[in-house]
Amino acid sequence: MPSPLHDRPIAERLEALLALSRQHAATYGSPSATLARQRYLARHPTRLLVMKCMDGRIHIPHATRTPLGIITPFRNLGGIFDLGWPYLGELVTETVAAGIEAGHGALLMITYHFSRGERRRGCAGFGCDADAALAHARQIRTQAERLFGGDHQQVYPLVCGFETDTDALILHGEGEETLDIGSLGATDAASLETRVVALCPDMPADIRRDLLPLLTGNLAHVASLRGVSRELDIEHREWVICVGRGFDFLHLPNTALIIGPYGPDLAEPIGTAADIIDANMAAGRIPADGFMLLASSPYQAVGVDRARAELKSRFLADFASRVIAARHPRLAERMHRRTAVVHWPTRRLDLLDAGQAAPR
User: Fold this and answer.
1) Which of 300, 335, 293 is nearest to 316 (CA)?
2) Using one digit for the tens of pLDDT, what is the confidence trace for 42-69?
3) Which terminus of the chain is less hemmed in, N or C, by CB atoms within 10 Å?
4) Burial category of 177 from C-beta neighbours within 10 Å (exposed 0-12, middle 13-18, buried 19 and up)
């Protein structure tokens, strides 16, 4: 029986991760997946945006049985965001605007995660405090209302919990009212729309229509896991630090720490990620032969757009390398750096350079 990925030599781990990105691009670009996206969007054109933690367990397309490429993800360490951050605010508003110009509304799913079975399996970004994570999600919702309007008619900000033991979504309405998919059975699928109307009476009909497939898919997904023995991965074994965007292929639990380039202070989350990697090595949870730093930026078209993505990725790689070298000099000596760009229409990850040492 092959050893788990996190126990293998660093060269094998690096190749396995890059192979995963290639497999993801091949699946995404297959004729069947492409047609599935086109058909789905023709039926459900509402723009779906999800703000979530970098935790690999939070795989919303998988948990809702939604075709890849339908949901626009925003991932960050701890699921911590602020719509006042200039770059994040621009990305969110541009995504929403593209839908509005085509005559479609947007559903902004603001997620937090927790474990019912064991508190320490919760979100490390909030010290495994589910109440604190929920409070932060509600703050983002308030910001979204300031940005897009409190009537919720064009953009609907929906706070959603994700219970990682069962992969169940928990929708939050006003006050303390919730809709917990994990508490429902297969026969409750027919009543989902009625339940959503009761929970979110101000949700526009078209946005509700396009939310329902996600809930129906999640209901079926949760039901399929009942009685199935699952590895809940309570021990942190992260050995990858990702900085930038374009990491859709990375949904392996306890593998990567993803820092989106959204906030004004990237040094602190990068330093925190380095602390975690260093602690994992010191505790023997991962081999001490190395870790990966992967910097990535997406682009839409060749030419200036790709060139700009290359500059961004190289900047992020250099910046992260300096932070890690200053905070953990000995750890930096074991860093295997990869710089890449992602062709977003195909999700193809292209390496620009590899094996660079940290800049001095």
Assistant:
1) 293
2) 999 999 999 999 887 888 999 999 998 9
3) N
4) exposed
